[in-house]
Structures are given as C-alpha cells and as structure tokens.
C-alpha cells in the first residue's frame, strides 16, 4: 500500500503550493488549498495507478450512462488509510481538513439509484482487487440544481466545472478516439470479400478524462474513464469538408462545433420516462463506441488472438442505455477484424452481460428504426441482421406463431427494443433484487425466460459500506469496532456478531447517544440552511429518493395530514414528537411529481407555522437532495420510509443505507425490502400494504375502486379533500391535479388502497418509540443483519457467476 509520513506530506504540500500558485500557504483560499491537497494525493498514488493498469487480470468494463460518485477526498483518504496523517499534517500548517472536505464539489453526474449503484460497484471492484473500470460521459452540466420558489421546484443548471477542470481527473489526449455519426455505408466487393466503407460521416472526438478509483487498504487503483465530446481538429475550420452536411463555410464550422460539443453537454434529468430524443441516442452511441474502441485497442496491444477476447474481457451493460455495445462490438469484429458473422456473434455474446433495473413499461427504451438508420447507418444494418436471424430462429422454434415472434423480436412496428437486443445479445441477464428478478422471469420477460432460462439470474443490489457507514457515520463505526473488532470492515457479514449485544443496556445507551449526536448535526444543518428548528429528541422520519408517483411520497404526506387533523381535533392525541424529512428531485417534465412537491411544501409551511402543533409535528423538505446531503441525513434517521407500490421498485438502495445506520424500516414488501425483512424477521421491521400478488392481480383483473374507498372511509376522505377544499392554501391547480390522479383516474399506484394499513403501521412506530430500549435493540439488530447488503457481496456474486464464470480453479473464481 502506498503511504507517506507526516513530515514528507507537509514538504510536498508546500512545494506543490509554490509550483501551482506561486504563493505561500497562508495566502491561499480554501479552493486553492483543496487543489493542492488533491494534487499531492494524486502524486502519491500515481505509480500505483500505472501499475494497476498493466496488470494481466481479466478486465471488467462497466458501461453506465451515469456515475453518481459523490465527493472523493474523504473516501480516498479512508481507502488509503491516510486520513490521520493528513489531518495532522494540515493541522500543523494551520489548515482544517474538514473545511477542505466541505469545499469539494459533489458531482451530480447521475439521476439517482442507477448512477449511485454504479459508483458503489466501482468502489467494491477496486476494494476486492478486481480489475474493473467504468466507462461513461463527462457531462459539462450534471443533474440540475433544485431550488424552491414559493414551494415550487425550479431548476438551475448545475455548473459543476466552475474551474474548468475537476480536481480528480486526468485528461488523456493520446487515448482519444473518433466516433462516427450519420453518412453513407457502401459495401465494396474486394477480391470476393465484402468490405464495408462508411463515408461522409460526421466525426466526433471522444476525449478521455480518467478518475482514479482507489481500493480499500490494498494496491488496486482502477479507472473511471469519462468521455467528453469535441470536434476533431483536422475537421474543423472553413477549409475542411469531410462530412456531407458541412460544406466548409465558417457557418458550417460553427455548426459542426455545436454538433460535437452538444453530445456531452448535459445529463438527461429523466429517470423513469423514455422520451425518444435524438440527442440521447447520440449520447448512448458516443460513449459506447468510444469505450468499445478503447477496449479493443488495449486488448490488441497486449494480446494477439481476437477470438480470445471473452477470456480477457468482460463487458457489462448497466440497464439498456449502453445496449449499442452489442452492435458496436459486432461492427469492429466484422468490419475491422474481418471475422465471420458467427465468430463475431459468439465473441460478442460471450463477452457481454446485462442488468435490468426496471419493469415499468414507460421506462423501456424503444428507438424509432428510422432515427437509428439515419444517425448510425452501419450500426442499424447490424441490428437489422441480428433481428433477421433472431426472427428466423423464433419462427422455427415456435412454428410461425406470429404473435410470439413479433412480441419477442428486436425490431417491431418500426421500433427497436433495446431490452430485447440486450437479452439475446448477452450471456447473462440479471435483475437487482429477488422479487424483481422473479417478476422479470414470470411476467415481464417471461417469453425470454422460457426460451433461455439458464441466462437469467438475480444479483441483489448492495451499497459501499465504506462510504455509507465507515465514512459517513464514524462514531457508529468506532462503536462497532470497539465491540467486535475491525474484521467487519473487510467482511461485513461479521456485523452479525453485534447481535449478542441486543439486550446489553450499556451498548444500547451508547447507540442511542450516537444517534442523538448525528441528529443534532442534522438539526444544526437544517437550522443553518432553512432556519427551521427541529427537535433532536423527536422521531426523524425520512424519505429521500427521486420523486415519482410509484414511490408514493403522497402516501407519506397524507399520513402527516392525518396526524395534523387528529392533533387539531384532540390536543391530547397520543403522539411522539416527529420530524418528517423529505428530499427529492422531480424530472423537469414530470408534471404530477412537481405538483406533489408543491403540495408537500405547502403542507410543511402550514404545519410548521401552526403554534398549536409546534412541539409535535415538523416537516422539512430539504432542497437539492444529493449524495453529500444523504451522508448527513442517513446517519441521523430513526425511520426509513420504503413505501413504493409493491412490484414497482426494482430494488431500492437507500433502504439498505438506512438499515446499516440503524434506522427502522417501514415498508411494503417490494424490491429489496423483501430481503431486509428476511434478514431481520417480523419483529424488527414494520410492514404494511398490498402483496405483489394482490397488485399483479388488480392490474390483470381490475376490482379496485378508489372512489368507493374514498367515499366509505372518513379518514381517507378527510385528507384527500384537503387537496381541493382550501385547507392547504395556494394549491388550487396542483391539488386538483393530484385529486384527479387519485379519484378520476382511479389511483394507479394504490395510495388510497394502502392508506389505512399504512396509518396502522405508523401507529406501531409511535408506540415502539416510547419503549426506547426496545427501539434501540431493534436498531442494533438491523445494523447486525445489514452486512449482506454490502456491494462487496454483490460484486463478488457478479464476479463469480457472470464475469469470471468458467475461470474457476479449485472452486474459487480466478481473476487471471
Ligand atoms: C432513459 C432514457 C432516456 C433518458 C433517461 C433514461 C433513464 C435514466 C436513468 C432511465 C432510467 C434511469 C434510472 C433508473 C434507476 O435509477 N433505477 C433504479 O435503479 C436502482 C439500482 O438498481 C434500483 O435500486 C431502483 O429500484 C431503480 O428504480
């Protein structure tokens, strides 16, 4: 492991300050101090980083259109075991490490769960000594910054690269590649061999920006390579006329510059709705083509026989956004390596694996064939051929059952189904929690499962316990180490040893003190930011995730309104003081979600300003929810809200983070909540709501009337009427819209159907909190059983069952 003494660190810090800024340390701003510190750390790791790159392990390449990394300084210091040395060295120089940690930008290059999962996976691959690298896009603007104006969400561009560069990145112009868009494809008969020539294309440069991914206390430093799009210099300027659409005029040069730069300009802020935008398709092909070219270039530098590609390389497609890896790899193998179709297809399938993250029809990517044909003519030809062969196979297998063939084909009704292409073009398809995988196999992808059952497998998601416990909750981590030693840091299943303390009053008291400390930190943050006083002795009840109807923030706020009414009617109503905390961004085009934000903010305003309930109820909607906010909120949470409509949340990952930090979960049996329940048992989780079967049956056979329920249940009616009766001011339009979604359109997500049961579950929480010792004991049992949700476990399973399958030696998977 690399290391440095305090003395040497201080010398290097000073020297770096002179060389970068030609000034003394006490003149420097925090921003400059941070730059200097990061630069010193990069120097320390540089040699190791290069050495990791030339290792001869089988390499895993993880393609994802978003990586939500969070701040890197603290977690890098943790993984390098340098925090103490550097903290003390900086202190000697009169600098506070904590101030510099706070100074770092939190890059928002992802929407939520998917991108954060990819970040946790990179951490685990490096920490498990797997040579695994990420490929993605270096967006100039990440996910918008959210502001509230009169309770409405307003989006502000996320200009995260204010200094032009990101402190942890290294640009590598010598590794840039060209990606080709549009143009014409000609097939030329070259001595009886068909040669493919792509002419008149628009070339776009993919410039790699590398970020080091440092393993936990080991020697691995992997790479996240993000591509920025740019012009190809020789094709720029009034004299160049390479591409069909650009004649060589000054105007055209500018148009070309725009065309190229636009591709990596901004992250799409949608996380559930596929919109079919041309620019999005350009983004997808851009980073896929750049990544695959990079892989093949590297492979050919070190290895000779391209037929051996699957032995040295595993390519993972995270959701369908990088699907074009399949035809792009085919293109290179066919057109550039001269392989036959069958050889190329074998290699492609054996190299590529795919993870599905959703079952929601509206999120499934289907691209118009015409759009792909024009933008990516050669890729489209290959997709057409894949589809033609697949249809032949299906026709034969299902004796011409036209419905089945159409349903399973890749191109149907002029649209290309990316999920279908992924399934048949890869050797492994996995869901992200047991229930999700079962629904894929038995409902959504049933025909594909019946056709190739051996391809399907489950990989329940996980979280990087280094960031989500060790780093964000150091006091809890220390207590755990004090009790069971430090082996749990490498093997989180060891956390189970904590369970023996579940009746130890002393330990439970310490656990309680740590939670209260964390709650005070959050209370200070909220006071500073929003000038709201919250009581650290109240129950912190938290729901932080994207705003979506299926996640049912609405159910949560209806419960709050219910409590409010009960309190107004009866000031002696039995209630432990509660602080409800929300954090959520809505996609800018998602009208209903934005209306729900306005509704929650309006309810918060009314309750927080009502003296009558002042000591009992508070509602805080934190602005601009982000990874760094989550790191403050999660260690302080008492209650974890995981209340999605059963079957709709593929897995969820905040549920795991809360559990690991000792919150008690109130949940439907959806996604990975099912597995949390299995871990802790009925006594240690509060469940409610429809079962998966009930939801699936309602969806198939009908039989639910929201209107009837509304009319017959006075508690439900009371809160639903609050949407439209003026009780909550200034929500005329939003209230009506939400009301209609429930009553006129029959409550697609069963909010009202689950409400009574949810209120009962919440009463259990209220009752339990009064028995503080019991509460803390349950909290401890949750922490003790959370080890299985470390992403180290998840990544070990991917490695064993997918990426290194067939490479086992003595029953152990072999990475070489
Ligand atoms: C697609 C096309 C065009 C534009 C955007 C998109 C797009 C972008 C992001 C579609 C989906 C996403 C993100 C999805 C996501 O975060 N899914 C979540 O993945 C988590 C990790 O597996 C799960 O825990 C969550 O249950 C799932 O909702």
Topology:
Layout: H1 6-21, H2 30-53, E1 59-63, H3 73-80, H4 83-92, H5 97-103, H6 113-127, E2 132-137, E3 145-149, E4 152-156, E5 170-171, E6 177-181, E7 184-190, E8 193-199, E9 202-214, E10 221-230, H7 250-262, H8 278-302, H9 309-312, E11 313-318, H10 325-336, H11 341-351, E12 352-355, E13 366-368, H12 369-375, H13 377-397, H14 402-408, E14 411-412, E15 415-417, H15 418-424, E16 429-431, H16 434-444, H17 446-451, E17 456-458, H18 465-471, H19 474-484, H20 505-530, E18 539-544, H21 553-569, E19 578-583, H22 591-608, E20 617-622, H23 627-633, E21 639-642, H24 654-660, E22 664-667, H25 673-680, E23 686-687, H26 692-701, H27 706-712, H28 714-721, H29 732-742, H30 755-770, H31 772-784, H32 791-803
Helix pairs in contact: 1-2, 1-4, 2-5, 6-32, 8-10, 10-11, 10-13, 12-13, 20-31, 21-22, 21-28, 21-30, 22-29, 27-28
Residues 111-114, 117, 268, 270-272, 274-275, 280, 357-358, 363, 365, 432, 461, 649-653, 671 line the site of ligand 26Q.
